[in-house]
Amino acid sequence: METLERILSQHPFFKELGVDYMQLVTGCASNVRFEQDQFVFREGAEANQFYLIREGRVALQLFSPERGHITIETLGEGDILGWSWLIPPYSWHFDAKALDLTRAIALDGKCLRRKCEDDHHLGYELLKRFSHIMGQRLESTRLQLLDLYGVRS
Amino acid sequence: MSTPRMYRIEPDALNELIQSLRQQNYTVIGPTPRGAAIVLDEITSTSQLPIGKTDEQAPAQYRLKERGDDAMFAFSAGPHSWKRYLFPPVLKLFSSRKNGEGFQISEELPSSDHEEKYALLGVRACDLSAIQIQDKVFGGGTYQDPAYVRVRNQAFIIAVNCTRAGGTCFCSSVRTGPRARVGFDLAMSEVLDSEHYFIVEVGTDRGENVISTVTSRAAEDGEVEKAEHLIRAAAQSTGRSLEPDNTREILYQNSDHPRWDTVAARCLSCANCTMVCPTCFCATVEDTTDLAGTSADRIRKWDSCFTLDFSYIHGGSVRPSSKARYRHWITHKLASWVDQFGTIGCVGCGRCITWCPVGIDITEEFRVIRETYLMKRGTSPNKE
Amino acid sequence: MVPRPYIVKRIRKDTVDTFTLELGPKDGRSHFSSAPGQFNMIYIYGVGEVPISICGDPSNSTLVHTTRAVGSVTKAMSKLRRGDIVGIRGPFGTSWPVEQARTRDVVVVAGGIGLPPLRPALYHLLAHRDAYGKVVLLYGTRTPDDILFKEELENWRARFDLEVFVTVDRGTPGWRGNVGVVTTLITKAGFDPTNTIAMIVGPEVMMRFTALELMKRGVKAEAIYVSMERNMKCGIGLCGHCQFGPLFTCKDGPVFRYDQIKDLLVKWEI
Predict the structure, then answer these.
(1) CATH match of C105-227 with 3.40.50.80
(2) Contact at 8 Å (CB) between C93 and C102?
């Protein structure tokens, strides 16, 4: 538990969260590991966790009948994976598959959700951090959409 | 050459001058009336000059009128400028011929000494400045245009000081005239009252040699003063002005000025302004082959930043709107030119104003932007 | 200026629309000398000229150009065969700051067809490896099928003194590499932002966002260099076409220091 707290508090995502909240968050954390090609979560399943990737890579994917598994984005060491636990209906919209052996810290989203309802201050702190990540992902996705390297005719 | 030598010559001696130059194998280029305008072309005697003609110029207007006298230079800049000869509208750069699997390139060079030997008669002070500006463009950088340098070094220049202000020009405010100061072999001022003569100032030894071949005498002070008086009067009766200071700040800081939309609503992107402007130098190259493909020529042609093609790169133009193209032209002419060549590119000849079909006035457009710049800086236009 | 004849020694198709030409001087004489980042005007008999970055190893005498077939000249170029003759004028333009980068970390970011102009810089850095700190290559393309110089990238990645990250905008079935825009790689690369020179080539939007991301990480605008592209006819600053604000892309560029042009980059239709 002690080691987990140190790792979490050193990550930019949890910076300046405060000692009390850090303890609370650590209380909801655990080490997890995914083998290569193991799914971290599947589209449609209940979203009850989010992950801080410590090692390895995870591909966010969608399956379509004509095209098979399409990778939309890959995340790696230091990235935060998953925000659907925070936003209703709390279910995953994508598949996430470990491309390599992946170690991560899983945080109990269900538990944190309850705590955020009780303590709005905590809720605001977490939402602030997640909206920053979502903003970054949105910007990157928009750049991907532009298809900048495509040939204009 | 310490003090300028001033001569007086009669109109007949001007003809002698033309013949003397022709005997030295110069092709004399001068103003001549053609149709409804005064253009530049080869002349062989003074009879081909626009004798007794003057022009009335205004935005989008050009008319020739008869004066009823014998004045030979009583008009202002016409649609042609001297870049027609120094920087020809169409020029073959090289031709390549197929040989075996490859090709052989041969550079185009003049076939004789005489081919590019021009005497330019009647260069106004503004146009003289324009020539000096193009000297910097084509001859002053790391890469020079050998064709320009070749023609230019041989060119004999006879400037003519303006003794009457044109309808659209503004040389005094941009400090390029009406008096020609440097860069000429000879400079003439026409005096026509009870007498008709020219005061000729010698600018180079070459000029001295040529003037010594014609009938002349030293000019008297009173005669010189008469010419000076006319030149001063011309300077004072100019109808417009353009303040050439701080153009970079004024234009670079106002790329989003609403005035650009106003002028864009009028501008047809017809490119007339760039064609008549004596300093515009943009050119394109065309590679053409004959039908059999045995020879291919590379031709340089005048181009204009007003065309959509001008800024085209794979898939689109960088400046698709005419607003951006007008803004580019005036910003280049008045501001970027300073960063590129050390002076503004406008000499105040007024041609772009006269020949714009909708009469867009560069001095007016710049004045509006300049006022915004001054207001933002807290100074009123009247004070500066 | 008249083009010098060069012979096509080899032509190779890289992707669906990209190909590489290897040229040698027809008279067999001169070793072509250029600085990384410069370009040539390539003349195709009877068709025209086009500016293409030099993308080979500067220490090698073979002249290499990789380009996409998009216009009349490049399409004609793509049909050349061994032994055909082309005309070369150049090298022209400014070059990458390989001297200023000495003792510093170097981050090279290439987007799409932006890798060829950076290749000579990478060769130079690797040939003088001791003179530089960490060297990182970040390369983003549209799809895995558009990745250029695959073998070379794999060789580079195998070196212990060079980090290579590749990503694509969209994956293809079976692709196990990174997916996402190239800016997302910046956080993965290890370099000291206070002591780094960055060189970026790609579409203008990509260069803007990459520079932004680098600056967010602490790299100063004066330490970032980009390569611009504009319509060129003469390549030597006389025809006016390549103007970018008051700058001539052919002689004041194509390599520009970011702080000197960042205000121009966000002006529309400049």
Answers:
(1) yes
(2) no
C90-C91-C93 Cα angle (round to 5): 115
Provide, as residue numbers in chain B, all residues whose Cβ is less than 8 Å from the Cβ of C6: none
Q: How confident is the model at residue B335 (pLDDT cuts 50, 70, 90)?
A: very high
Residue in A closest to C177 by C-alpha: A74
Chains in contact with chain B (at least 3 beta-carbon pairs closer than 8 A): A, C
Q: How many domains does chain B have?
A: 2
Two tokens, residue B345? 């590119």
CA atoms within 13 A on the CB side of B111: 1
**Whole-number Cα distances in Å, B159 to B242, C45, C137:** 23, 44, 61
- Write down which chains contact chain C via at least 3 CB pairs under 8 A: A, B
* Cis peptide upstream of residue B178 (ω within 30 degrees of 0): yes
> What is the Cα–Cα distance from A73 to C168, expressed in whole angstroms?
9
Rg, Å, chain A Cα set? 16
Q: Is C156 on the interface with A (CB under 8 A)?
A: no
Peptide bond into C246 cis (omega under 30): no
Q: What number does CATH give the domain C4-92?
A: 2.40.30.10
What's the pTM? 0.92
Same domain, B203 and B318: no
User: What is the rounded CA–CA span in Å between residue B261 and residue B333?
Assistant: 19
Angle, alpha carbons B370-B255-C209 (nearest 5°)? 150
Q: Do A78 and C183 touch (CB under 8 A)?
A: no
Give the tens place of pLDDT for each residue, C160-177. 899 999 999 998 888 999
- Report how far residue A58's alpha carbon sits from residue A100's, in angstroms, rounded to the nearest whole number: 8
The nearest alpha carbon in chain C to B283 belongs to C239
Q: A-chain residues within 8 Å CB-CB of C209? A: 139, 143
**Cβ atoms of B264 and C221 closer than 8 Å:** no
Query: At a CB cut-off of 8 Å and minimum separation 6, what does B190 contact?
Result: B71, B72, B73, B74, B160, B163, B196, B198, B227
Shared domain for B39 and B65, answered yes or no, is: yes
ipTM: 0.93
The residues, ordered by sequence, that sit 6+ positions from B178 with a Cβ below 8 Å of its Cβ are B124, B125, B126, B161, B162, B163, B165, B171, B172, B231, B234, B235
